[in-house]
Amino acid sequence: MLSKDFTQSLVILIVATVVVASFSIVVLIVPNLVRTDEIRANSLAKPLTAIEVSGRDVYISEGCHVCHTQMVRNIDPEVKRDGRANKEADDIYEFPNLWGSKRTGPDLTNLGRKYSEQWQRIHLINPRQVVPTSLMPAYPWLFEQVLTGDEIEAKMRALQTLGVPYSDNEIERARLAVRGVSKGEALVQYLQSLGQDTASDQER
Q: Please, are residues 160 and 166 in contact by the beta-carbon 8 Å criterion?
């Protein structure tokens, strides 16, 4: 039996917390650090373009990741509906990852292979026009708000530091690529990129 003094000891609480945290780091983080090169070599993932990075920021800022997942689990109904199950190597350039945990709307892992750009635009402006039973709010103002591109270079530099293989030339041209593009169009480009890099992998 644990004594009252043991369960109420601040020192023991701190030591136990450090031990558990250290074990978690060893088990969850260290193996991935050791296997990074192997994972990258086997990955089909491609870095997002400057416009797609901006669109991803819009996706996050509008809370799209709250209602949509980007994680196809290895379960037959999901694979049949949404495409092949996610692999560890699919998300090596995702910072932060957008796997999500709630599906008020459908999973978007392979969305870019399902619909045209025009469909995406209509869906964002008025979801009910293409999906009559949709619960998704409309986002028409995103096509009226224009990106300046002032922050994109810093964002891509940060991603480069985290291991995304952007060249200095790509980063230097990013502002001009983004400037003047509407938030809605950037979001469409991001949505259209989803699943494109793994399209050649038809493993089921």
A: yes
